Amino acid sequence: MRVWNQTPVLRFLPFFIAGMFSGFYFQISPVLLFICSLFVFGLFVIQLIRIHKKYTFLAVRFFGLLAYLFVFLCSWGFTLLKTEKEYPFHFSKQKNCEAYLAVICEDPKDKGNSYRFEAKILQIKMDSAWCYAEGRVLIYMRKNGLVKIPGYGDSFLFTKQPEEVKDPMNPEQFDFRKWLSTRQIYHQLALKNDEFVLTRKHQASALVEWSIALRNQWIRVFKENGVEGQEFAVLSALILGYDDEISSETMQAYAASGALHILSVSGMHLGIIYGALQTLLAFLSKHKRSRLFKAILIILFLWFYALLTGLSPSVLRSAMMLTFIVIGQTLARSTNTYNTLGASMLALFILFSPQLILQAGFQLSYLAVAGILFLYKEIEAKLYFKSWFGKQVWGILSVSLAAQMATFPLSLYYFHQFPNYFLPSNLVVIPISTAVIFGGIILLLLSSWAWLALKVAWITGKLVLALNTAVSVVEQLPYSMLSGIYVSFLELLIWYFAVVFFAIYFTTANKKWFMLAVPGIIFLFCSVCFRHLTLREQQKLIVY
User: Fold this and answer.
1) Which of 74, 75, 226, 281 is the most buried (most CB within 10 A)?
2) CATH of the domain at 143
């Protein structure tokens, strides 16, 4: 009971998430939801008054159920309001549009023969008159004949009709349509040089535009100081979240070695920056006003870095969670880490978008942190090392095991593969990547001193080369990756029931949790056997 009192957000979060999924898959009138919410809220207030007059066990339980139901209904309605394709002015609801006015809402990515970016529709032309419109579309602009490279904030006109993103053509192929829908994009369009006209510049957020310009400037710092090839590509991804120049071979090597998480700016990066800021600003911790100033500086810098790296799901989670931790420390309040994790998730849904929960990166990021919070200390306590080196090695292995245990079922579900050597890989990759992050940051800070910057760039480049070599060696080891693993949604749920029960058994040593996990493992084993038998007997021809 005391644990639940320390985690009030976690009690309401499942009902909020259930309301979001209801909004994704069940479309009902927002007016009806509003009326139901008002009715439940009225019952909630009446029950609160009754509890004050006469406190009973059943009355309190009914009061709690009304609170959960109210959160569920509010979340359902909130999700409907945040779903752009249901807006009455969404451009897809208007037929026979003569022209579109859109603005580029991200830094265009180089995709070989074209530039790809998200654009927001601002207006549509119908019957020779311009009307207000909403909605996002994925644009490909062909490089052939392109005079000027478009940039963030540029607005442009085009007359070509956006097309709905198609379903995957092959079985088990990556569902690009589903991935785009998590970003509220349902249409795409390829434009040649003579099919659009750039109209105005700087039509979007000045802060975002400035952060993109700063990131591009820092990327040039890496190049100007002699960091080239895949060393440059990996360094830019590690420090600035710019992964456009990473080759497919390098990406595959990181995936096969279980170190793919290194290439995306994540909690580790924010944690390193947070620790460095805490150390540098430690002198501001003496007085109340200086502590407040220190907290503001740290929060602003964390969110600036998150904006600089593109606001990926893992960065959003880390920045929001660290924000809650900083606020708690500044107010001298003890914080429950599980409650902080849940609060950060809830804040992201409200401040950004409920669709975040549909993104694989968001799900994996939160599961990894939950696994580390729940299992890391328990795993680390199983072995004791006297030496500092032994403690560090076992600490890295413990973190890797905890995160992998929490994420591997979902990884199998999405990516159908498992890196067998993730433990030795992370043992090498995490220390080197940490050194690379510090080296990259120092390089950016010293970029004004050319002779010193060149030396730091040389050392950092060699570290990145060592990092790339390490993952390549792991990839080439026999049986480095299990591939072709397919997990159904039902099997995914069974996997997590088994994992959760095993995790609880591991932390409590209560055999009943182990006995609850065993039926799940038996079911999964039978399911795999049945699938293999079915494949052996099936008579089917699939043309890819």
Assistant:
1) 75
2) 2.40.50
Instruction: Mark whether 43 and 129 lie in a shared domain.
Output: no
Provide the b/e sequence for 53-64 (b: ≥16 CB within 10 Å).
eeeeeeeeebbe
Question: In 3D, which of 104, 113, 102, 105 has the Cα closest to residue 142?
Answer: 113
Whether residues 216 and 198 share a domain: the answer is no
Is 530 a member of any domain?
A: yes
- Cα separation, 187 vs 413, in Å, equals 26
Answer yes or no: is 484 within a domain.
no
How many domains does the chain contain in total?
4
251 neighbors 227 (Cβ within 8 angstroms) = no
Question: In the chain, what is the straight-line distance between the N-terminal and C-terminal CA atoms, in Å?
Answer: 55
More confident residue, 144 or 37: 37
Q: Are 252 and 269 in contact (CB under 8 A)?
A: no
- Same domain (yes/no): 218, 299: yes
Nearest to 317 by CA among 269, 375, 256, 251: 269
* Two structure tokens written together for 194: 């003579």
Nearest Cα residue to 444 out of 253, 220, 151 = 220
Q: Is residue 408 part of a domain?
A: no
Instruction: For residue 43, count CB atoms less than 10 angstroms from its CB and return exposed for 0-12, middle for 13-18, buried for 19 or more.
Output: middle
In whole angstroms, how far apart are CA 192 and each of 17, 105, 110, 400?
42, 19, 15, 47
C-beta separation of 111 from 248 below 8 A = no
How many CB atoms sit inside 10 A of residue 442's CB? 16
> Do 154 and 35 belong together in one domain?
no
Regarding whether 199 and 97 lie in a shared domain, the answer is: yes
Residues 72, 101: one domain?
A: no
* Domain C-terminal end among 157, 176, 204: 204
What confidence tens digit (pLDDT) does each residue in 503-543 have? 888 888 888 888 888 888 888 888 888 887 887 777 777 77
Find how far residue 229's CA is from the centre of its chain: 27
Report yes or no: 150 and 117 within 8 Å, Cβ to Cβ: yes
Q: How far apart are CA 333 and CA 326, in angstroms?
A: 10
Dump pLDDT digits (tens) for 341-364.
888 888 888 888 898 888 888 888
Tell me the DSSP string of 48-87: HHHHHHS--HHHHHHHHHHHHHHHHHHHHHHHHHH-GGGS
Q: Are residues 95 and 238 in the same domain?
A: no
Q: How far apart are CA 35 and CA 520, in angstroms?
A: 42
Q: Which residues contact 460 (CB under 8 A, 6 or more apart)?
A: 227, 235, 436, 439, 440, 442, 443
> What is the pLDDT at residue 313?
67
What is the radius of gyration, based on Cα positions, of the chain?
26
Asked if 463 and 501 sit in the same domain, the reply is no
- Say whether pTM exceeds 0.70: yes
Question: Which range marks the domain in which residue 529 is found?
Answer: 489-537
Question: Among residues 63, 82, 101, which one ends one of the domains?
Answer: 82
413 lies in a domain? no
DSSP string, 192-249: -GGGEEEEES--S-HHHHHHHHHHHHHHHHHHHTT--HHHHHHHHHHHH---TT--HH
